[in-house]
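Re: Re: token formats

Sure, here are both.
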Amino acid sequence: MTNSPKILAFSGSLRKDSLNSKLLEIAVQGAKDAGATVTTVSLADIPLPIYDGDLESEHGMPANGRKLKDLFLSHDGLLIASPEYNGSLTAALKNMLDWVSRQEPGEPRLACYQGKVAGLIATGGGFGGARGLLHLRQILAGMGALVIPEQLTIANGAQAFDENGVLKDDGQRASAASIGANLASTVGKMTA
């Protein structure tokens, strides 16, 4: 691949030993193996206040919001692992997406999402995070991102990983890596 696509990777989980973050690592390696440059961030390391229009009006974009916006703007693709909380995405992930969506003076509307390509993966309980990814797909597409059709959900994540945090099933590991590689390939084609 002559063009090295730039992908921003993050998990919607704030947990230190998040299974979604472990799954993300596999997909990130797949993207790197396909020639992408990947920046992985933890939302726990970039805390944001709950979005509030009055807070934004009085104080502007929080410094961490600006940091995340700059990361979004400097990358062509998004690789997201999103746990499912009560049938949807996590509050931390939704809050971050909302802050990053805010238009600042001189910026095109939804500049951080327009023309981006996203890949989605999840692990969780009985549904594997599928209901949360459905909502996340709608949100991203509604803001102008292209979400690749291929996605991966792994049900009963607590049993899918061993005591060392390694995904047990070879096929699931290959599928997670494939999501990363497919995202890298799609981003590379779109930015060539």
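Second one below.
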Amino acid sequence: MVVVVLVIIGVWWYTHRFVPPTFETQAVTMQTVKEEVDVTGTIAPIQDVSLSFEQGGKVAAVPVLVGDRVFGGQAIASLSNSDMYAQLLGAQARYDAAVASLEQLQEGTRPEQLEVYAAQTDQARRAVTQSETSLYDAIATAFTQSDSAVRSTADQMFSNPRSANPTLTVFVSDPTLKNDIEWRRLLLEKSLIGWENVLYVKTNGMTDATNADEYILDVQMFLQKLALAVNALTPNANLSQVTIDTYRSAVSLARTNVNTAATALSAAKSGYTAAVQALSIAEKQYTLQAAPATDATIKAAKAQVDAADAQVAQYRAMLAKTELTAPIDGTITLLDTKAGETVLAGKEIARLISVGKYQIDTYIPEADITKIRVGYSATFTLDAYDDSVVFHAKVVMIDPGETVIEGVATYKVTLQFIDTENKVRSGMSANVTILTEEHDNVLAVPSRALQTRSDGTTYVRTLDIEGNPVERTVVVGLRGSDGSVEILSGDITAGEEVITFEK
């Protein structure tokens, strides 16, 4: 029993004996205290431009590819504009004529000049007659080539081609294509008959070329479909390779002849239109020159010059809208069109980002946004590279409005590169450190050494000669991101040891 009591007393004494505390300390130093904000961001080009045509039309050319470097003003794509260009030339001619007429009025007209204008009018009238004849000949030639292409070349591959049920005699594996070709052949018979009638019907001395345009287009589409079928033929017991080659050659030649005729028809139409316009101008010039040069006449001539000038400007503006150009030097990142397609006005067909000029888009929580100002410097690393590769940037913009991300109010902050680096690519993730404040060569202690009394004052503890902790009141300043805190005033000096942990 005595032994048990002694054991209990021994245990109580051991557990309740006084053990002096041990302390961990750290020296007070003179150092640089930096306050920083760490965020993540995304690399983005400074300029990201979406490109679209202001007007719709058929794409004539796309001279660039995705990934190509382009310079400001370089063509990205263009629309077919031959008709518009012809209109511009006509408008320019009318403007030049209007200017010349005005100058002539102001100078006064001589009889010999009137004779010249009369001769020009007669010449323009003869040109209209000649162009009318040329247009008629072009329509006739287009009919002849189309008639030969269909009724001679194509019909050798049909049975009953001119009946209500024309049937292809060669095997076509695609039933849809076969039906399409036979249907078009049925319609073409009516078109050819109608076209032939057009050649003998004239309105006001001129053959109507509108139907001819439609007819030859139908023939071109028919031959295109037939070429698809012929090119897909393969030899069999009823069809030799020689016959197939003959068909292909004949269809190809027919297409060439019809296309050539179509081009000639278009040129003849343009020539006739230009001749008519030239005659109208010549007649107006003669009338204007023959009339007395009154003030009203001169004012009218000036108005014609202004109107012609406005029309030229209008056509120039319209012509410019048919070409899509790069507004900046950059790289093509999107190209959603190709030659031959029809595009709508306003539809994005290309995207362009600036070359070698990047920025970082970040979103700063509201708790840190008040620390950041435009012009603050920053460093960042990229997830794609080692942390030792450090880049430099500066804050260039802070959005005034908030952006709510996952229920938290943030503010978009944009940083611009100070140094350039070819390794950087758009879309990379960046780890950004923004320096918000920096105090050099100041007295600093670890934040773990600071304690606060109930009255709100701050103090640190040091050890006296006997190793006992002593409180020293301090006033703190900037709190660094690395855990160091600036001491503005207090009874401590550099080199002293402050308690950071007590055990």
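The chain has a mean pLDDT of 83. The two ends are 38 Å apart (CA to CA).
- S.
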